[in-house]
Structures are given as C-alpha cells and as structure tokens.
C-alpha cells in the first residue's frame, strides 16, 4: 500500500508566489487594506473608545475637571436614570418618534403612495415634486418657513384658520415639531412605498376587486402581506432618524419650559451649554442603547416574517 508523501521541494510552490485569486499575496493585500483600516481606526474606533471613556468620567469643558477629569464609573448613568429632566426628555422623544415617524410619516407616506397610483401623471409629478422639495431643503430653511407659518402675529396658519394671536410654538410645541418633521420627512416613506406597491401583482388586486372585496379588504389581505417587509424597514429607518433628530431645536430650542426638549436637544444643552461633557456623553450612550433596542425589535419582526 503506497503512502502519501509530500511533493519534492523543487515541485512545491515558492513561498513568495501568491496563491489567492487576485494574485496579490498576503503582504501586498495587507498594504492595500491598511489605509482603509487606518481611517476606520481614526474616525470610528478611536472616537468610540474615547466616548466610552468620557462617559465614565466627570469631564467638563472648563475648570479643573477639564484639565484633570476624575473616573466616576457608572455614576453618570445612575444620575441620568434618576434625573427627571432626562426622563422627561426621553418621554418627549418617544412621543415625538411615535407621532412623527410611526404615525405621521408612515401613514402619510403610504396614503400618498397609494393615491398617486391612480391619479393623472401630471398631478402625480407635481405632488411628488412638492414632497421631495420638503425633503431636500436644508433643515434651517424649513425651520424658518415653519416659524413664519406658525407666527403668533402674522403667521400664515392663523390667517387661514382665523385664529389671530394663537401662539402655536408656545401653546403646542410638541405638536408643532411633530407636524414639522412629518411634513419634512414624508418623502422617504412615500418613495419607499411607491416602489413596494409597484411589486404587488395587479392580478391579485383585480381578483380581489372582482370578488367584491372593499378597498380596506384589498389593503389588508393583498397589499399589506406583500409589503410588510418594506413597512418594517421604513419604520426602522425613520424611527432611528427621528429619535436622533436635532432639527426641533431650530423651531423651539426645546422650550417653552422643556416641553419640546427631546434627547438630542437635552444632550446638547447638557454637554455644550452646561459644559458637562462626561454626563452628556453618558446620555448619548444611553441613546445608543435605546437605538439598538429599537433596531433589534424591528429586525426580529423582519426575521419572523421571513421564517
């Protein structure tokens, strides 16, 4: 019985000959990847580790704590979880996400996408252009337009409703920023749902219509099962964007009396105005954990759909 033996040394491939598909070899391939890895380390890994460190210290913008910060462990996190202002900002942020992203942008975006399927092409082009215009305009420009519209003395909304002197930004600050963000961000949901509805088989809708199904029954039994994944994807993305949205600061600056102070604004006020960088960093990391929880929930729902 013949025994397997290693090939002679003169038949073995030289050590410096590349064996990968690209023909680069390990050393040259590493040289190509090194600049990208260096950029990731500088702009992602190091800031992440530095942020984790700051959240465990009493680091401040000025004073002794800026020059010689002390390690305080998890005290910042314990302080935040027991701080009524933080809990109020968290509650307002959840209401902001629910009203603007989950209810406002998702429902309005779907209604626009569903309605635009059957209207005249010219009308569809005009509506889509107006919605896209709200999306591509800079946040500062949109904020100025809404401040002018909601102005107490000469605002457009008061003129249309016949309610002179109504101070929308003071009496209804949270509602104002919810409507503002819904108007500004609906374009993404509309475009995503328009693409999703294009994949729904028209034959199934026609069969349901001929069987006497109402409009709601067609949506429930035919459309929604086909686009459920798109709905969850849309909810995931706009929920994360809205949760971390800073643009309400341009409208109300978190006021009056912190009634529209969402978490991004609270972090800005704490870290920049109050100078508590360590405490503000800890709150930012808590926001990151909440974002991860939201992402995991949506991803589990997507996985259940595919299984």
Quaternary form: single chain
Q: How would a textbook summarize the main sheet?
A: none
Overall geometry comes to globular
Beta fraction of the residues? under 5%
- The CATH homologous superfamily of the largest domain is named MetI-like
Structural class: mainly alpha
Element pattern in H and E: HHHHHHHHHHHHHH
CATH topology of the largest domain: MetI-like fold
Poorly predicted tracts of residues? none
Helix content: over 70%
Mind explaining what this structure looks like?
It is a single chain. With 307 residues, the protein is mainly α. The chain folds into two domains: 25-67; 75-306, MetI-like fold (Orthogonal Bundle), CATH 1.10.3720.10. It contains 14 helices and no strands. The protein has helices spanning 25-54, 64-67, 75-81, 84-115, 121-136, 139-149, 156-161, 168-171, 173-197, 202-210, 215-243, 248-252, 263-273, 277-306. It is globular and about 75 Å long.
Short description:
This protein has 307 residues and is mostly helical.
Question: Which helices and strands appear, and what pairs or packs with what?
Answer:
Blueprint: H1 25-54, H2 64-67, H3 75-81, H4 84-115, H5 121-136, H6 139-149, H7 156-161, H8 168-171, H9 173-197, H10 202-210, H11 215-243, H12 248-252, H13 263-273, H14 277-306
